[in-house]
């Protein structure tokens, strides 16, 4: 019997768990109910449970055989500050909060795998099941690490999985290097001299300086970076003035930087600073610049990525495993795990992305039909990483 066939009898139960979590979404570090669902399911399966790691994080521990080897499997639990537009029965019961990224499905797939692994124990070693809080911008992965995750649960490698709309349901994409980009932020404050709009020569216009700065920033990727280095620099906010006939004394700009390497991040930060100084001098204004590092890039280690390809191929066939998919400029805090341990982060297809079901969309919903495939992937990955009898 295949791993997927072994999982299918539990499909209805897994669907019910997933929809219950979807109906009761919780924001970063507030996943108390979700964590309690996880704890209950793990304890029911006879799995050792550790709570309160990184706030609301949960780690389950399954041991089998005599090997001292250990690996980690991670799922995220938090929801987003989005008002759900779906009208199905399991829609969010919390106004302004919904599972618009599929973390409800990720949690459920890992719970399903936990039940299979605990029941059959066809591996040799230890599996740490990591249920992480606060992936959506709050760095729950980093917080768990700072709270001693890897010291308390010493694993040799760690793995993650995210659903991906646009990839056919149940298929996989695996990258041998960068998967997701970094997510840095910058704030720029242009301080000029206010004046009557009819007498601009009596002031120093921060709006004109800010506009020139926006234009100059657009040249960073095209004229500063190596064309082979992918990056995005976007100005997403520009605030200035309150009246039609007044040149304000300040303008404020903000934006985001995305890249796949530390060197590219450093070069962009340096160039942004240089442009701020240059534009300030050219327009006779003062420009204050602040750059804040966010999530680092998510970069798979090649050997672990290759094992993930083998695992997915054994389940769905080589023609349904994409090893040439482009990485995403989105960001993911699984990157903190991969900074400390070898591992890989894969995408499982959620089905067509048309019709408003892309990630972070108020019409999104996780595709329950892929639950057995996701569960089987985790189980098969464990069996390959920690083979019995070796």
TrEMBL record:
Source species, domain of life: Bacteria
GO molecular function annotation: metal ion binding; N-acetyldiaminopimelate deacetylase activity
Protein name in the entry: Peptidase M20
Residue ranges annotated for the Peptidase M20 dimerisation domain, each copy included: 185-268
A Pfam family hit: M20_dimer
Lineage, uppermost ranks: Bacteria, Pseudomonadati, Pseudomonadota, Betaproteobacteria, Rhodocyclales
Binding residues annotated for Mn(2+), in chain numbering: 101, 103, 136, 162, 360
NCBIfam families in alphabetical order: amidohydrolases (TIGR01891)
PANTHER family: METALLOPEPTIDASE, PUTATIVE (AFU_ORTHOLOGUE AFUA_6G09600)-RELATED, PEPTIDASE M20 FAMILY MEMBER
Keyword Manganese attached: yes
Listed GO biological process terms: diaminopimelate biosynthetic process
Alphabetized InterPro entries for the sequence: Amidohydrolase, Bact_exopeptidase_dim_dom, Peptidase_M20, Peptidase_M20_dimer
Co-factor binding comment: The Mn(2+) ion enhances activity.
Presence of keyword RNA-binding: no
Keyword annotations: Hydrolase, Manganese, Metal-binding
Cofactor(s) this protein cannot do without: Mn(2+)
